[in-house]
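Model it.
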Amino acid sequence: SGRPRLRGEARPRHRALAATARTRWAERSDPAPRRETEMAMRPGDSVLLVGEGNFSFSASLCDRVSRDVQVVATCYESEETITKHEHAANNINCLLEKGAEAHFLVDCTNIQECPSLRNRLFDRVIFNFPHCGRKAGVKKNRELLANFFRSCAEVVTATGDVQVTLCRGQGGTGADQPTRHWQDSWQIVAQAAGAGFILSEVNAFDATCHGGYTSTGYRSQDKSFRVAGALTHVFTRSLPIDKMKPFTMETMIGNEHCSFRIPEELADKINRNFLQEGSNHPVNVIKELLKMRIAAMVVVHELENQFPLLLEYRP
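Modeled.
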């Protein structure tokens, strides 16, 4: 199997200070079933699958994507152990026959340490139903996700994405129905943010869209996960956060020149223009409503100069 063709270069890792979930469920109660994994892959793209159980998902993916898409499937177990899973050997053979790669003993939290994957970049990384094994609690699984995303930051291209499918309720996002308490979830958005990824999309996972796919490895056994209500979370790299610097604001009040220093903690809060005419920012909407209500009772004069007149105060 050949080395995948790469697009672009990875950005330097950076710390995400916040994670904003831009989701597509705003106007519907349930996410639409996904059929986007294979459709979004373009000829020349490369996709890395980690944590494969019996390699049925990667074999199914190979059937649907272009032969020019490089598919690299990996699992945590040894080849001897993994081939004990039902149909695993056949799935691996199908992968190899179609030009894909299959690698064993790959730690998804330290992808670059695998000799066959070192110094390689991928346009997509897919992790279906991650789990620490046995009866690991939410804390251990949060750590797994956090370390996985940190590893992805080293192997995903600048324009690539990371797709993680979790069972119903595990993710802790608003798309989960029913929604668990935040402290009882895996808090996937927060784990991804620590590695510089933001949630860009959430879709329902429909196993019937992936012919031949059967999940396995539930509690480290040859059992399937409960895939009903599962969600696929799509993460992309967040934009680099520029370090804000303190600056000085100046104005004239009457004949007097006034200025004061804005500390770096407030530097990004100044001049956001959310009070400008026509703005739909919630603060401006409330301001206009209050102004209308007050104007109905008293005469209102609005100052054109928005510079704080508190500068006239003399201690």
